[in-house]
Amino acid sequence: MTIVTAPLAGRAIGLEAVPDPVFAGAMVGPGTAIDPVREPSVAVSPVDGVVVSLHPHAFVVVDPDGHGVLTHLGIDTVQLNGEGFELHVNKGDTVQRGQAVISWDPAAVEAAGKSPVCPVVALEAAPEALSAVVADGDVKTGDALFSWEKA
To answer: Which residue positions does the secretion signal occupy (predicted)?
Structure first.
């Protein structure tokens, strides 16, 4: 079983509250979302693993069980063309849970007219594979967000 932890601090709101139909409908996969604190912060890896996809606004880490976890920093933030985001790792790097991946400023994202809400998604997972999903309440970086049963 994989425990997926919060890549940043804020308030858990659940995927259905994400202002994007693809995430809200769990079309990418099940999980939860965090409405982040509005201050410059660092998004960290939610699991131990390898960075298989890395963009200024999003990253995927695949753990040793083959579980891919997507952290998406804000909604429609790809339109910011990387402005305001700083990468701390490279695609292909092995990372540890809690390791810095991307620095960003949720308040600046909001000021640019984008939602800073951050989906944290279990890619290609069946909804029933997830348990103990945190969909409300305050979370700190590193708090457990959900458990993912090994396939």
So the answer is: none
